[in-house]
Amino acid sequence: MSESVISVSELTRRFGATTALASVSLSMPRGAVYGLVGANGAGKTTLIKHLLGLLRAESGSVRVFGLDPVADPVGVLSRIGYLSEENDLPGWMRVDELLRYSRAFYPAWDDAYAEQLRHAFALHPTAKIKNLSRGQRAQAGLLIALAHRPELLVLDEPSSGLDPIVRRDILGAVIRTIADEGRTVLFSSHLLGEVEQVADHVTMIHQGKIVLSAPLDDIKESHRVDGRVPSLDEIFIARVGMPAAPASEA
Amino acid sequence: MRSPALAIAWEFRRRHLWVLIALAGYLLVLAAIKVLIHGPWQPVTLDPPDGRVGVAMVPLSTTFFYFLAVFSFGLAGDLGARQSIYPARMFALPVTTKALAGWPMLYGAATMTSLWLGTALFARWPWGMHLPLIWPALLAVVFLAWTQALTWMPYGLPGLRVIVTVLWLATLDAAVLLALHSKVPEAVLLAVLAPQLPLAYAAACFAVARARCGDVPDWRGMFARPAGNAVLTRWRDRFPSPARAQAWFEWRRHGRSLPALVGLLLPFELALLWLAKDAPAFVFEILFLVLITPPFVAAFTGWTGSKPHPNVSDSYGVPPFSATRPLTSAELIGAKLKMAMWSTLAAWGLVFVTTPLALAWSGAWPVLIERAQRMNDAIGTPRAVVFVLLILAGFIVSTWKQLVQSLHIVLTGRPWLIKGSVLLTLTFLILLGPIVEWIIDSPSVQGALWNALPLILAGLVGLKMSAAAWIATRLERSRLLGDRALVAGAACWCVAVLALYGVLVWFFSTPFVARYVLALIAILAVPLARLSAAPLALAWNRHR
User: Fold this and answer.
1) Of the candidates B146, B158, B15, the residue with the CA atom closest to the CA atom of residue B76
2) Has residue B452 been placed in a domain?
């Protein structure tokens, strides 16, 4: 493995009396798919927001590509593709305007790839974002996160927006392609089954603390019981004492 | 909660009760001050106007407009959209459409009636003013009912809602003013206003029914570009730089509000020229009204950036989509400043095109020419030209300033700071009337103020420069702006101050005003501290 794309050291964050992150340390080398898993409210989004520079480290340090994302937002953000959990694309924009606007920020924007993704997601160029379905909005967000071929793709709970077919077929394929090209993917989810399908490395987070961070194969091997390899869900329950997702979602 | 009606009432009460409590508390304090200082039976008059009335009128008027927005769901809805602003989540409630329209109308009517009755009773005691009870209350209720019906209606074009609602309410207002001017008996006024309530209710039911079944007309096709390649052309267009793309984003997001609102108001204002062409004083009052419109509207639209984003978890914060643009906070501010400039120019373009046309067509042009001639004779052509240009430039710069001067508050994303600032502004407006009246009534105060003017100006300049120095230090330390940008900004500011000072010295060449006073005025007039603080505010919000 080469140098770290993400390096977090002793990161602590509090919101009032709540400790969202407690002395989190993490290092993610280039060229792999990292699954950040945990129940809702575990601290996944808070950690991702620190990586994007949307939250300032109260204590500890955060480096992405060796840069401080708060001090150098342009240097960091121009190399990241980000799909927000909040799905907050401007509703007044049309799909073609969104692409035209987003393209201006990324010199490496690939028009042919953007067009290919737009066709794959069946997004009409003149459709307004606010008139798209929730899943289509997430697809539009994924499109602009991917079209500049970012060095690091950050997907915050993509499962909450994308429909099952897109999640299984397209997202899985995209993530594998990116990893095969030597780029890095970090995606958070509370649906461990999905993480299990694509992640090379899994980090479990619970109540702001990292409870386990290791390559997926190593995790499974170390939790083998009587020759049977448990699922990631079972390992999570064994570690944390509760499932990451409610039974209805899992 | 035992019924849907109670649940809907609870939602209004839960979110907005504090406004009523704050207003009641404010009026109680005001009543106590009035009783203790002026005595309970000393009357306050509207004619001639008494500055103290403003102390009560400003918060009451503000509350009226606030309730107009609350009960029409305008605080959360998108007024410019074609879709109804009635909250879509309520369409799924197991209640009839009549109930969905009727309950908010009923609660709104009760609140507006209470607001007016409270105002009238408060005016009666301890202020000693006798205001009519019934027709103003009914007018407020009718006003609200039409606002609800017209804003809940789905429309075929974006922005049509605002135009229809403003036109209808302005017509209603004008009709009532005309009736009052003609001294129409109250019974006639009531007979005209009362039947509008069932009409508005029927319109509201129709609007909610259409919105509930997703029946939104689409007339955009009528205005579509005939060339089929337009979309393709746009699609291929590239922004030359990220800064340009961001400026376009800001223009589309906020920039069009000012010219649109100015364009909406101008026809009404300029139409008055046809009534006033034979009264020179009135013509100039109308022209002043036209010139003051862009900065006045800009003072409100400048705060639109603080409108919460309902779809994100931190509604006052920078939405992740904007926060993750690979631009520095200073570049994001630069785009906002550029948008403000375009917005100002577009609004003034409208004024400069329509006003001469209206003057010419209405026959009021000779009145203006005659006055210009007189000014020319009195102060000479160069001074007259500079005077007019200075006035116009002052209004234009003031419009831009109004748009950008609240950025340092709005962009912090802290609700307590934004709401506190609004409260302070309102308090200032409330106190302005009595203070101005006190100054006008007291020659000794005027004399003291005149003597202390240089000291006051010097104090304000000291405050401004200290704040600017502190902000510059913070900008430099946080690396939000590089050294070159800081030096270039400071140099531009100095040039602007010197230019303004030069014009002032040339124009006011009188021994009555010392040059250092003009220098102090020039320093205060050119924006510096608040504008420089905007990148800091955004960075504080963007990197929490």
Assistant:
1) B15
2) yes
- pLDDT computed for residue B194 by the predictor: 92
Q: Is residue A146 part of a domain?
A: no
Domain with A16 in it: 1-79+188-250
pLDDT tens digits for range B455-491: 999 999 999 999 999 999 998 888 888 888 889 999 9
Asked casually if ipTM beats, i.e. exceeds, 0.90, the reply is no
Domain that holds residue B277: 239-404
Token pair of B422, please? 């609004």
**DSSP structure class, residue B215:** -
Count of structural domains, chain A: 1
Element (H, E) at B496: helix B483-507
User: What does B450-464 look like in DSSP terms, one character per residue?
Assistant: HHHHHHHHHHHHHHH
Q: Is the pLDDT of residue A228 over 50?
A: yes
Q: Residues B290, B351: contact at Cβ < 8 Å?
A: yes
Residue whose pair of structure tokens reads 């927000």 in the numeric block = A84
Which residues of chain B are modeled with pLDDT < 70?
A: 1, 34-56, 126-127, 223-236, 304-315
- Measured in degrees and rounded to the nearest 5, phi and psi for residue B471 equal -65, -40
Say whether B241 and A104 touch across the interface (CB within 8 A).
yes
Q: Please report, for the domain that includes residue A17, its CATH number.
A: 3.40.50.300
CB–CB contact B238 A100 (8 Å): yes
Give the whole-angstrom CA distance, residue B299 versus residue B399. 8
Contact state of A88 with B312 under an 8 Å Cβ cutoff: yes
Chain B residues whose beta carbon lies within 8 Å of the beta carbon of residue A88: 309, 311-312, 319-321
Under 8 Å CB-to-CB from A56, ≥6 apart: which residues?
A70, B543, B544
User: Is A155 within the bounds of a domain?
Assistant: no
* pLDDT of res. B49: 57
Q: Please name the residue ranges forming H helices in B508-528.
A: 515-525
B272 shares a domain with B218: no
Measured between beta carbons, the chain B residues lying within 8 angstroms of A50 are: none
The answer to whether the CB atoms of A104 and B542 lie below 8 A apart is: no
Over residues B21-36, the pLDDT tens digits come to 887 787 777 777 766 6
Measured CB to CB, residues of chain B less than 8 Å from chain A are: 81, 231, 234-235, 237-239, 241-242, 244-245, 248-249, 252-253, 309, 311-313, 318-321, 323-329, 479, 542-544
Asked if residue A211 is part of any domain, the answer here is: yes
Read off the pTM. Answer: 0.77
**B248–A92 C-beta distance less than 8 A:** no
Asked whether the bond before B326 is cis by omega within 30 degrees of 0, the reply is no
